[in-house]
Amino acid sequence: MKKNVSESMFIEEIVGDEYNSMSYEGAKALYEWIEQYEDDADTETEFDKVAIRCEFSEYENFEAVQSEYSDIKSLDDLQDHTSVIEIPGTDRLIIAQF
C-alpha cells in the first residue's frame, strides 16, 4: 500500500521532524528532486521520513560539505560521488550521504 504525499505534506513532515535540521527551502528542493527522479526512472518511491533523514543532509554551503568530506575538492567532484541538490536562491546544498 502506497500513500500519495503532496508537496506541503512532505515539507511539513520533513521540516517538522525534531531529528531533522532541513530548512523549508531544502525540503521543497528535495521534494522536487524526488518527484523528478520518479518521473525519470518511471517508478514510485515510498515516503519514509526516517530513511530521508538518514540518506540526505542539508549544508549551509560547499565549504560545510568539505569540512566533513575533506577529500572533496570541488562541486563537480562532489557530484561525481553522490547526488547533489542545489537549493535555489541560496548557497545551501543537500547531498545524499556517502
Describe this entry's structure for a reader.
- Helix 1 (7-15) crosses helix 2 (24-41).
- The chain has helices spanning 7-15, 24-41, 49-55, 62-68, 75-81, and strands at 56-59, 84-86, 93-96.
- It has five helices and three strands, in the order H-H-H-E-H-H-E-E.
- 49% of the residues lie in helices and 11% in strands.
- The radius of gyration is 14 Å and the shape is globular.
- It has one domain.
Keywords:
98 residues; mainly alpha; three-stranded antiparallel sheet; 5 helices; globular
Short description:
The chain is mostly helical and 98 residues long. Helices cover 49% and strands 11% of the residues.
Helices and strands in order, then pairings?
Blueprint: H1 7-15, H2 24-41, H3 49-55, E1 56-59, H4 62-68, H5 75-81, E2 84-86, E3 93-96
Helix pairs in contact: 1-2
Radius of gyration: 14 Å
Give me the secondary-structure category: mainly alpha
- As a percent range, the share of strand residues is 5-15%
Distance between the termini: 29 Å
How many helical stretches? 5
Q: How many domains, as an integer?
A: 1
Biggest beta sheet attributes: 3 strands, antiparallel
H/E element order: HHHEHHEE
Form type:
globular
Query: What is the count of β-strands?
Result: 3
Into which percent range does the helicity of residues fall?
40-55%
Average pLDDT metric: 93
